[in-house]
Amino acid sequence: MAIYTHLNKRDCSRIAEEFGLGDLVTYSGVRNGSVNTHYLLEAKRGRFFLKIDEVKKELETRQELDLLLFLRRQGFPCIQPIRSKKGKYYHELHGKYLSVSRYMDGITVPVEVLTLPQLEVLGHTLADLHLIGRGYKKGIDNRFAFPKVVMMYRDVRKEIPAHLRNITRVMEDELSYLEGYLDNNLPKGVIHGDFFTDNIKFKKTRLVGVLDFEAACRGKFIYDLATAVNALCYLDGRYRIERFEALISGYESLRPLSLPEWDSFPNELRFSSIRFTITRIKEFYLRKMDENHRVYKDFKEFFDRLLILRREKEGGMEDILLAMATGYDYRKYQKSKPAK
Questions:
Q1: Predicted TM-score (pTM) above 0.85
Q2: CA angle 273, 129, 317 (to 5 degrees)
Q3: Which of 32, 39, 232, 264 has the smallest C-beta neighbourhood within 10 Å, fewest atoms?
Q4: Is the dihedral of CA 136, 246, 244, 285 positive or negative?
Q5: Is 3.90.1200.10 the CATH number for 111-336?
Q6: Residues 6 or more apart in contact with residue 103 via CB below 8 angstroms
Q7: What is the pLDDT of residue 272?
Q8: How far apart are CA 214 and CA 119, in angstroms?
Q9: What is the CATH number of domain 9-102?
């Protein structure tokens, strides 16, 4: 949600008019975030969130909005897009596509103060998304599928400075490993792809909103859960087993993991870690832009996770693997029990 496209009062007034928001009162850019530009608009009819997509073309923008509208109809707590006076949910501005949604109340909870009950709720909500999404029959291309991440890395590698060569060595070795060990024959459907705390809103322990479906697509459920583990269960340089257990408990209360999913979990954690390492290098470390408007997210945070997952660094991985093995053995036992 950095500010890459700058709007003035006249621009925002026209947008408010186009989407029937009433007279514009105030507008302000929202700086915390990453890929797209966001503004908060206050108008006669309330508070609204304006998103300018800096990456997606018209078709991709339309697909994201269509998914959000489907999820809202099913009662999932995502943002609510607003239709313009022309009957469309998006509008072209300076060759980019923008959309407007109602502002969602609640607060984002920093990862370090998330409680175990909140983590259970987050796991439950992610499973709910996966189950609801099974009814969405339209495809959305996965921009972060393994082959595309490899291609992205090849482009990024050309610009990585010499003093980071050790990082490139590890990433090349990891991509080579994952090419042979990622399992693509796993349950798939709608995934969020970016289930981080800054995309979640709470009112106390009650989850009231899931934001930012920029990376949503058709993908593996276990990858989405692995990304949530990397985002929510890692704190102060270590994976925290009590957080992992709370998140998984919430998830499996709705959707138990299959044996192949438990088996693939460690590799999906590794893929999620290298995916965010590479995209953060591209979008934050190497991206050329005005430094006054740059929002910096350190790629080394996810590279450190990768080193732990590769067992090249201490960080609580043994506890996570033991919990995974226990879950795997339990599911295997349940599957093999004779029917009564």
A1: yes
A2: 30
A3: 32
A4: positive
A5: yes
A6: 40, 46, 47, 48, 49
A7: 98
A8: 22
A9: 3.30.200.20
